[in-house]
Amino acid sequence: MKNLSDINVIRAVMSKHGVTFNKGLGQNFLVDPSVCPAMAEAAGLDENTCAIEIGPGVGVLTAELAKRAGKVLSFELDERLLPVLGETLSEFNNVEIINQDIMKADLKSIIEEKCKGMDIVVCANLPYYITSPIIMLLLESRLPIKTITVMVQKEAADRLCAEVGSRDGGAVTVAVNYYAQSEKLFFVPRDSFLPPPKVNSEVIQLTVRKTPLVEVKSEENFFKVVKAAFLQRRKTAENAISSGLGLKKDVVADALVQAGLERTIRAEKMTMEDFAKLSEILL
Ligand code: SAM
């Protein structure tokens, strides 16, 4: 099999099929040969696993997943890459490339149909322009996904894996924590990609919880309060929530006190339980 992390091999197969890099689609392909095997190993695959990949590129990670998993479903939006993947992955009969936008795909039906009875994991080098939307889509969909092992921009990794109640935390940190346990696995420098992006990367792993971390009556309300609280980070939670949700300041102030919180608290100091209590009282 061809070495798909070799720059010359990538250039040759792309030029053979008349494909050029599309920056807008986040096409930075891995050229460090150690990264994809390490990601595939971390994903914990066996013959009963169906691995979902988003954005195979020329198939460098796909091949490592195919060597270890029972089945690989790989979503690629760029149809120009289909003939490339047909060539680079020709030796595998357990890979299916699905030419769809991951944000629009009917993941539930596809998984039900193609991965019946199998354990589901996600493993991907994500297109960075939609990192958080993809992760939130996977978590909110309530699909039977066990783990999500993904390469993301370093700064996104810091936020996704931050502790709730710490400076690096944001609305997405709270959301991820609600659904999953997050962990940083390893750092990947920018020169591990062709072409090199402006930013460094990190591989992270989210282990999806069987039940959310806190119990809330309405998830919609919980996330509304979380989003509003972080919308204006420099303001107190009282001011941010009252302007974000169009509520009178007195109402928010009373709710904070009822929840046992200081009126001057900022969103970045609040715990999961604080957000849960506040959302129950407020909305
Ligand atoms: N896995 C390859 C690697 O590691 O070298 C390529 C990763 S590259 C960072 C991201 C890939 O995602 C590209 O192949 C790009 O075309 C694809 N992509 C971008 N947006 C997408 C979307 N909305 N749905 C599916 N694939 C997408």
List the helices and strands and how they pair.
Blueprint: H1 7-16, E1 29-30, H2 35-42, E2 49-54, H3 60-68, E3 71-75, H4 81-88, E4 95-98, H5 107-114, E5 119-125, H6 131-140, E6 145-153, H7 154-160, H8 171-179, E7 180-188, E8 193-194, E9 201-208, H9 219-231, H10 237-245, H11 249-258, H12 272-282
Parallel strand pairs: 2-3, 2-5, 3-4, 5-6
Antiparallel strand pairs: 1-8, 6-9, 7-9
Helix pairs in contact: 2-3, 6-8, 9-10, 9-12, 10-11
The structure holds S-adenosylmethionine.
Structure explained in plain terms:
The chain has helices spanning 7-16, 35-42, 60-68, 81-88, 107-114, 131-140, 154-160, 171-179, 219-231, 237-245, 249-258, 272-282; strands at 29-30, 49-54, 71-75, 95-98, 119-125, 145-153, 180-188, 193-194, 201-208. With 283 residues, the chain is α/β, with parallel strands linked by helices. It folds into two domains: 7-208, Rossmann fold; 219-282, Helicase, Ruva Protein, domain 3 (Orthogonal Bundle), CATH 1.10.8.100. A seven-stranded mixed beta sheet has the order 4-3-2-5-6-9-7, with helices on both faces. It has a two-stranded antiparallel sheet with strand order 1-8. α6 links the parallel β5 (119-125) and β6. α2 runs parallel beside α3, α6 packs parallel to α8 (171-179) and α9 (219-231) packs across α10. It is elongated, with a radius of gyration of 21 Å. The termini are far apart. Residues 25-30, 54-57, 60-61, 75-78, 101-103, 125, 127, 130 line the site of S-adenosylmethionine.
